[in-house]
Amino acid sequence: MGPPDDQVLKARVFERLDRASVRPARGLHRVPVMEPNRSKRGIVWLVGLVAVVAGVALIVLWMKARRPEGASRETTLTGADVERHAQAPAGAACATHASCAEGSLCARGRCEPITEATPDCGSVEVRFAEGVADLSPSADVEIERAARCLKAHRDPRLAIEPSSDANISAGENDAITLARLSTVHRALQARGVPAERLDAMRPEPLR
């Protein structure tokens, strides 16, 4: 056979080129596509959550630090607090001494501040029912007046009715009189009269 003509040679060359174009180049490898690492994504999410929680905590602490001092105090009031807040100021209408603020007395239906010229701090008379040492409602009013005067640094003359029951012995009357003195002392102490004021007090028998 004679040598192939030019057309045949061209056909063979194109055929080889076509085969080479679909064959992967030697030494080259297909790089696989890697999926994102799920564990790394979980760590990133957890770190972000911790950062958000820490930020909220810092904001709360900052707001507490800026809150006024009185805002953090408890708002629960005791019975004494309620009574003190309910007391009327000087000049307000009143029915009893206890309805006025500290340092005031109820005089002629008005709360009046206790001064050196307050006549109601001149003398206090505490009377009892016969044969007993318990305070009556009227005696309790007198004790309240005496306590307010004493706490306002006034020294009222305190007269206590002694027991003079003719149906019992003198010794029994003396015992009741001592019990009345003790009752008055405890009542004044319960109303906040200082101990030194009570010790200096010299009750007199009511004539």
Question: Could you name the key traits of this structure?
Answer:
mainly alpha; 3-stranded parallel beta sheet; rod-shaped; single chain; two-stranded antiparallel sheet; 207 residues; 6 helices
Describe the fold and architecture.
The chain has 207 residues and is mainly alpha-helical. Among the domains are: 84-113, no CATH class; 117-205. It has 6 helices and 5 strands; from the N terminus they run αααβββαβααβ. The strands form 2 sheets. It has a 3-stranded parallel sheet, covered by helices on one side. Strands 1-2 form a two-stranded antiparallel ribbon. The longest helix is centred in the first third of the chain and has 29 residues, at 38-66. The model is unreliable at 69-85 (pLDDT under 50).
A few lines on this structure:
The protein has helices at 6-22, 38-66, 79-86, 137-151, 170-190, 195-200, and strands spanning 104-107, 110-113, 123-126, 157-160, 204-205. The chain is mainly alpha-helical. Among the domains are: 84-113, no CATH class; 117-205.
Mean pLDDT figure: 78
Distance between the termini: 169 Å
> Whole-number radius of gyration?
50 Å
Query: How many β-strand runs?
Result: 5
Largest sheet strand order: 3-4-5
Question: SSE order, as H and E?
Answer: HHHEEEHEHHE
Instruction: Give the class from helix and strand content and strand pairing.
Output: mainly alpha
Name the overall outline: rod-shaped
Poorly predicted sequence stretches spanning 5 or more consecutive residues: 69-85
User: What summary fits the major beta sheet?
Assistant: 3 strands, parallel
Percent of residues in helices comes to 40-55%
Oligomer: single chain
Total of DSSP H or I helical runs spanning 4+ residues: 6
Which strand-content bin applies to the residues?
Answer: 5-15%
